[in-house]
Specification:
The complex is a heterodimer of chains A (222) and B (320). By secondary structure, chain A is mainly α. Helices cover 73% and strands 0% of the residues of chain A. The relative contact order of chain A is 0.09. Classes of the chains: A mainly alpha (222), B mainly alpha (320).
Chain lengths: 222, 320
């Protein structure tokens, strides 16, 4: 076996590090990897094209943008801030803590697309988290504002990743079942999803603690 | 039956409209670059199934060429100002949340209604695409409500959508591109090579070290591929099944489930998982492209350690 195709991975790492356009990096890496593995150029191109076409559903999510955009035009983000301003005891950490729980539970019920970065984080969660920080600590400096926004996005990811595997019909559970089945090991989806629960609890405790500690860090920063 | 194809036609129409409005946007110096880029994406959604694999490959190269040559720009925003928005928010109040909630609520109750009532037997919606189709339906309902309540200019949703899409730019297509890269990696046998390397570094005799190599392998391979799905079959074949399940007698359910979740810790750390880590940075207009990843490190690492302990104790030590 030859290790040559691994050069494609090195290209990706190098390209990302040197901040070339990622689309370009990925396309070049795909072609180089294929060629190094001895696949003819035309076949590499066809493989890339087929996979791109088969994965169009990944980019379907952008159809929510016109709705979110119109609502922002009429003041959605500002209203989200106002609402938080009126709520007593609403801090950045507590808002994100509640969102983490909500996201994990919904994902565990298989409802992974009801929330997400375009649907909920940009229009609602991030402005609310920012407004809460402003209410407690006054105007935020650039660095803190960035951190609050990034933490909002991170909380959505953690909630999704470590909730969805509790649902029995999610892709990753079916993949584990299928892969193990290939080795002659029969598992039921329920059995697998039960074993996703301990990690889900750990994720909630670890990230939740970080969120609540974040409030203190905000207070100390000034 | 309503299939994913319907949704693709709708999504293609939106990107085509973005392309037309981009071409007309004189405030954007690179307006034709944007127009060509979104037109190519629209073409992919509309004609992807008709032009063959090689045709799609050439389409991908064209999309990459536009982005790689830095032909995408941003126009000046023609939307309402922040002051106007504060006023508008006071006028409309919390009514503004309702259309935003229509989308998730339609997807939620729609999925439940469809799956647990006789509706499923009617075959109205392709069962494989139910939630995405209902998400699309929710978008259309929410748009209708927006028109009725706010009476925006006819093209406002497209213009506002385009404004958001342009702020994301090429990053909006990156997740799809990375999925395609995964397919090429698989065809080139990259997974087998990594699995072989991981299999060779296993120290014999220590189940705990084997568990560590298995979990680290899942996370590292996920960081490289941006996707734990590609890593799992490889690491299961290299270590999970032969050494842990067959060799040491570990519980395959734990090895499978928690192995995958160790990979998810890697997903939190990699720019290759663009839709989770890079796109939101663009969507939230962060200065630091890697800002979201930086915030995830302190969750991913302790959680990874928890996974290793769960794998070892629940999967092996206590399971015997």
């Amino acid at each position: 076996m030859t290790y040559l195709p691994l050069l494609g991975i090195a290209l990706v790492v190098l390209g990302f590090a040197l901040r070339f356009n990622p689309l370009l990096v990925v396309a070049v890496a795909a072609v180089v990897t294929g060629l190094l593995a001895g696949v003819p150029f035309v076949k590499v191109l066809a493989t890339l094209g087929k996979a791109f076409n088969d994965n169009r559903y990944v980019s379907v999510i952008w159809i929510v943008l016109p709705v979110i955009g119109v609502l922002e035009r009429y003041g959605l983000q500002q209203q989200a801030r106002t609402l938080i301003g009126r709520m007593r005891g609403a801090t950045t950490g507590r808002i994100l803590f509640a969102y983490l729980g909500f996201r994990q539970i919904f994902a565990a019920l298989g409802l992974t697309s009801v929330a997400g970065h375009p649907q909920t984080v940009r229009p609602l969660v991030a402005p609310m988290a920012e407004a809460a920080a402003e209410k407690e600590h006054g105007d935020l400096d650039e660095d803190t504002r960035e951190k609050v926004k990034a933490l909002s996005a991170a909380t959505d990811n953690v909630g999704l990743f470590f909730g969805e595997d509790i649902f029995i019909a999610i892709g990753s559970i079916l993949l584990i079942q299928g892969a193990m089945g290939g080795f002659g090991i029969e598992l039921t989806p329920l059995h697998l999803s039960l074993w996703a629960i301990p990690t889900a609890i750990c994720a909630f405790v670890i990230h939740g603690t970080r969120l609540l500690l974040f409030d203190r860090k905000l207070g100390r920063g000034r | 039956m309503i299939t994913l194809q319907w949704l693709y036609v709708l999504t293609g129409a939106m990107f085509a409209a973005f392309a037309v409005l981009s071409a007309r946007d004189r405030s954007n110096r690179k307006r034709f670059g944007n127009a060509i880029f979104w037109a190519l994406v629209a073409a992919s959604f509309w004609f992807g199934d008709m032009i063959g694999d090689l045709g799609n490959g050439i389409l991908v190269l064209a999309i990459v060429a536009v982005a790689g040559a830095h032909l995408l720009g941003r126009g000046e925003t023609l939307s309402t100002t922040t002051e106007q928005r504060v006023e508008l928010a006071m006028r409309y109040g919390s009514k503004l949340f309702l259309p935003a909630l229509i989308i998730p609520v339609t997807a939620f109750f729609g999925t439940l209604l469809f799956n647990y009532t006789p509706l499923k037997a009617t075959g109205l919606i392709d069962p494989k695409a139910t939630t995405l189709v209902l998400l699309g339906a929710g978008v259309l309902v929410a748009l209708a409500v927006c028109y009725a309540w706010f009476r925006p200019p006819v093209l406002a949703p497209i213009d506002e959508g385009r404004r958001l899409m342009d702020s994301i730019g090429w990053a909006g297509i990156l997740p799809q591109m990375l999925a395609a890269l995964g397919a090429v990696f698989a065809a080139a046998g990259v997974g087998d090579i990594i699995g072989g390397v991981a299999g060779e570094v296993i120290p014999s005799g220590s189940v705990f070290l084997a568990v560590v190599v298995y979990a680290v392998g899942m996370a590292l391979f996920t960081i490289i591929m941006g996707n734990a799905f590609a890593a799992f079959p490889v690491m299961a074949a290299a270590i999970g099944v032969p050494i842990l399940v067959r060799g040491a007698g570990a519980d395959p359910a734990v090895i499978g489930a928690v192995g995958m979740l160790s990979g998810f810790c890697g997903t939190l750390l990699t720019p290759m998982a663009a839709n989770f880590n890079i796109v939101p940075a663009a969507l939230l207009e962060l200065k630091d492209q890697y800002g979201v990843i930086r915030m995830q490190v302190a969750t991913a690492i302790p959680l990874f350690i928890c996974n290793v302990l769960i794998l070892y104790f629940a999967g092996y030590a206590w399971a015997l």
